[in-house]
Write a sequence for this structure.
């Protein structure tokens, strides 16, 4: 069973770097995790900040490791404070 979304995503953008590195098929599962409150590899302070942002309308940020072994890459998912857009990107594209 898939958890209900916790916030609106707005328009969804994926950078060329993410598409070239992890592929389109890997993006949707990350967006699902993000919108349902699975913040990925965030520390306790950042998780708490995201939970606070749900109530106050601030930016929401998640980080996920994609791949296995030597072929892993970190992917960020960021939803803007006004919930107008969510961007999936590589850290170096920020």
């Amino acid at each position: 069973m898939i958890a209900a979304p916790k916030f609106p995503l707005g328009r969804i953008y994926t950078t060329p770097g993410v598409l070239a590195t992890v592929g389109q098929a890997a993006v949707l599962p990350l967006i699902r995790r993000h919108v349902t409150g699975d913040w990925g590899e965030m520390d306790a302070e950042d998780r708490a900040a995201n939970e606070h942002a749900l109530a106050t309308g601030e930016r929401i940020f998640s980080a996920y490791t994609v791949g296995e072994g030597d072929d892993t890459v970190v992917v960020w998912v960021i939803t803007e404070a006004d919930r107008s857009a969510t961007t999936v990107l590589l850290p170096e594209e920020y």
Notes: The CA atoms of residues 35 and 74 lie 18 Å apart.
